[in-house]
Amino acid sequence: LAAQSDPTTRGPDLGAVVEHLRPEYFSRWLMDPARVRPGTKMPQSILPDGSVPIPTLTSLPFNTPLNALWSYLSQGDKALLPVNEVTVLATPQPDQPAVQRGQVDTKNGGPHLTRGMALGFSDGTLLFDADRMQFVSSWFDGFVRPSEQPYYGLFWNKEGEEQHDASWFSDPGLKLQLPDSESWQNFELPLASDPNHGTRPTRCQVGKTAIRLQYQLVSGSVSVLVTEDVSVQTQLAWQGLARSFRFEGLPNGARIAMSFPQDPTINGETEQRLSAIDASPVHTYQALGRKHTIVAHGAAGTTWLTDPLSDIAVRKLVSGPAIGNQPMGLRIDCWRTTEIATDANTPTRETWGGPSPEAAMAEFNRTAVPPPSLENLASLNDGTQWFPSHLGEKRMNVASMRNEVAASYRMEPIPGPFFGFRPSDIAFAADGTMYVIAMTEGQIWRTTIPPADNPSRVRWQRFATGLDHPIGLQVIDGNRVYVSQKPEITELIDVNGDGVADRHRTVASGWGLSHGWHEYTFGLAADREQNLWFTLNTGYFWTNPGYVNPGRFRGSVMRVDHGTDQLVEVAKGCRVPNGISVGPNGDLFFTDNQGDWIQSCKLAHVVPGRFYGHPETAEDALPEGEFPNGRSTIWLPYEFSRSSSGPVLDDTGSRFGPFSGQMLLGDVGYGANPGIMRISLEKVDGEWQGACFRFTRDEPHGCLRMKFGPDNQLYLASLTTGLTRVRFLGQDPLALQTMAIRPRGEGFVLQLTKPLATSVQLKPEQFHFRRYHYLYTGQYGSPEAGNQDVTVSGVELSANRRTIVLTLPVESHPLGMVYHMTVDNLVSDEGLPLEHNEAWYTVHRISQQP
Fold this sequence. Notes:
Elements: H1 2-5, H2 23-31, H3 33-36, H4 64-73, E1 98-105, E2 112-121, E3 124-129, E4 134-140, E5 145-149, E6 153-157, E7 161-163, H5 167-170, E8 175-177, E9 185-186, E10 200-206, E11 211-219, E12 222-235, E13 238-248, E14 255-261, H6 268-278, E15 282-287, E16 290-298, E17 303-306, E18 314-318, E19 328-337, H7 357-364, E20 386-387, H8 389-396, E21 409-414, E22 423-428, E23 433-438, E24 443-448, E25 458-459, E26 461-464, E27 472-476, E28 480-485, E29 488-493, E30 503-509, E31 521-526, E32 532-536, E33 556-560, E34 567-572, E35 580-582, E36 588-592, E37 602-605, E38 634-635, E39 644-649, E40 663-667, E41 676-684, E42 687-696, E43 703-708, E44 714-718, E45 722-728, E46 736-741, E47 747-752, E48 767-773, E49 785-790, E50 794-797, E51 803-807, E52 817-823, E53 838-843
Parallel strand pairs: 1-6
Antiparallel strand pairs: 1-2, 2-3, 3-4, 4-7, 5-6, 8-9, 8-14, 10-11, 10-30, 11-12, 12-13, 13-19, 14-18, 15-16, 16-19, 17-18, 20-25, 21-45, 22-23, 23-24, 24-26, 27-28, 28-29, 29-30, 31-32, 32-33, 33-34, 35-36, 36-37, 37-38, 39-40, 40-41, 41-42, 42-53, 43-44, 44-45, 46-47, 47-51, 48-49, 48-52, ...
């Protein structure tokens, strides 16, 4: 590629590059060599926006040239020498409808859509805006394509020729007229409506030739369920879309209307001619240099009306009145063409026949194409792949844990379904199926748990696509799959049991979403009652203090009640609560990241109604000198945890080693803070507090989520390292198992996983303590204030040589006092040295009871 963009370039033979580089390093080097090795002088073959300065490659989606080059070099000596003609794959067009959620940049004066839903067809794309509950734009001859934003996933940008007009963005879409009123009412918009019972999306479903959208519209006491089927068709010089509506819940005599601009430049004669051919209500208007024709096929009474009260000339397509409880149907065919007619008498188009709305909807349920079964995955060519073990080892190249823990645990790489796979969460069904998120691509893949003797032997099937920054997975009731994506919590339903989600059901939505790419929906956790828990990230937070995003529920802990889908705001005041999980006794805990108002990364216990420190507006800020009542259960050491991520409870009953009942949490700092922390908690006077320890030190990198599988082993989803499994090998390490505070603040009690060797004689000077606390301000983080060494005055070892009682003065602080301990020269009976000789205990309460 470099030689073609600069003919004077000379370079080495790259045939063996895959033997020396991991795929992510290869991509990073080509994208920006000077960042990998400062001072490198090398042509910029691939530009920072992901494009390649070669005419035949510039139109490809981001990363396609990198993928193609890596695949070519992977052939080694068998690779054919390049020829002068550059052969590339064209951007794939969907052979059946596809849905993609995400932020979308519209052109020609259109806004940036934070809740866009692109409906892709073979002839083009329609863009649905979930904030307005209507279609707002269209692309012909191209599907909305992704552009990668490293770390943050995908945004969506136009490809092909876009068409929209300003009325689509100013008009509120469907309108309601009640039988006792002459006026038309607008339906509520989602963000101004009740998140549980107001206007909101409820479902989308992809068929063979059409997409079904379902949404609830509310106006006052009237709630209307709208089912809309959409298809795109091409006929000769015409391109257009057919929209079939079904309205349920309308009062008797109520009517529904939709407005379109009225173009006075198109005379009535042409319109009458078209109407005579179709025998249907017709409306024609001109926008953006194109002429649009709308034909309505509706129930009796459907007509076009001119709206004299509108600021712009519009016509309303008005349905017939609702009768009884029967659902009301309406179909709209919209076409566009460059010319209305070839001569004065004959219009240039074919007449389109179509079924009634009822018949079209009945046919829709039979349009799903069943993919192959899971047993036949090895032969698929649609992205499902079989990975031989040697390929998995070469691609992942994940280092084992440190040598001193090799006898206790082993980290095993599991190959992902495609090159560049960045998993963000894992979940397991009752039958052993493992679901994994591909965050950047907005996909979910499924497989079975890899065999214990060969973790590289996996077969993948794509389960769901079209998600907007999915970052959390949960399976409840054995096989119901839920995903958290930026705009909503979604249940993914496999209707026909073929291993592919046919229907996306909106479980919860309605929170603020702006342009901030940090506005993730973190989760998911399921409590004992199978309620779903998640947390909402703040948006742009570079200012200090960060009063930047007063959107609904931002920075809050949320719950969706099982069975009713009732959305509840439980607590607030989070900044980047990247992970929530069930902990000891079934209580809920979340992690948060250091920044403005958040002193250091932390693990916090969820208590309803509490405020955890991060105000969304200046009015929410506490008076100076006051502290949040939402406590940080554990303050994490910032040197080892700078972007703490999802915690997980070890509930394996000691089948994963000696830490059952404790929590583990990762760090998503992309290699800056590799490893996993371990948390041991205790309740003192009704409040959780406790200690954190190191569990692994060098791997994984970018660990976002962890889950225990049905095999009682730990599975990690890491954005840098990839998908891995941590396997317990049966031998307990020598480690600090727990650290507990003594009554009246007399010191701490350490519990070991193994007895110490009889040759070990403990002395107070082997134990080193220092204590510190944090400051509560709107600045980014906090220094360790009041840093002070604390002397251990006494040490006792129990008869079983596993319990150490330390005597030293212990104090608290309103934000929690951290006691950092290091210990030297501890060895087990087998001669094993102590692993990770540090602990950090956060003191909130000191019991006065013995």
